[in-house]
Amino acid sequence: MKLAIFDCDGTLVDSQADICAAMDAAFSVAGLVPPERHATRRVVGLSLHEAMRQLHPEGEHQLHADLTQLYKDAFRARRTAGAVAEPLYDGIAELIEDLSKDGWQLAVATGKSDRGLAHCLATHGLTKHFVSLQTADRHPSKPDPSMIEQCIADAGADRARTAMIGDTVYDIAMACNAGVTGLGVDWGYHDVPELVEAGATAIATSVPHLRELLRGIE
């Protein structure tokens, strides 16, 4: 059984504007200077607590926990107000449809919350295509392989025919730690040389190119 596991933010959807806005709000409410946008982009994909630890390393555990909750509150408020967009990258919807029709099992492994991922996929009508949805709510932060291991178990997939697709070094390192193919994409939040250095088997430069790379492990 072949399995394609997708990261979400920076791979399926371009959510950086929403993430940066919520991060700015969280830090501001806490009385801290918000991180630079590029710094926030760097931590996309990690669990929220780990992201806060990296963005504010001098802070104590409780401050990181407080920032995590403030971020969740800010993001939820934006979603309630209809301000969250999270557009799909061009061609992603068609790719998911095609892979599903071609017999691929599909999964998501993301630093998002269960609620955030469910809302994102439902908004784009993609939920039905995925057999496993793994989030930071129930797993250690990337690059721990826990999410991939659960996806493989849920799908009954062959590890040798499993690919993790993502835009950050955390995704690629997670793939390496799980012993599956790691495919990077160049339209997300980390640079291509970083993905290569992290151990990516290949880098997709477009959605059609990603489809071709996946054919190579069928």
TrEMBL record:
| Swiss-Prot/TrEMBL keywords | Hydrolase
Q: Which PANTHER family match?
A: HYDROLASE-RELATED, PHOSPHOGLYCOLATE PHOSPHATASE
Q: What is its EC number?
A: 3.1.3.18
Q: Cite a single GO MF annotation.
A: phosphoglycolate phosphatase activity
Protein's name according to its UniProt entry: Phosphoglycolate phosphatase
A biological process (GO) annotation for this entry?
DNA repair
Entry keyword Hydrolase: yes
Keyword Hydrolase belongs to the record = yes
Q: Name one GO cellular component term.
A: cytosol
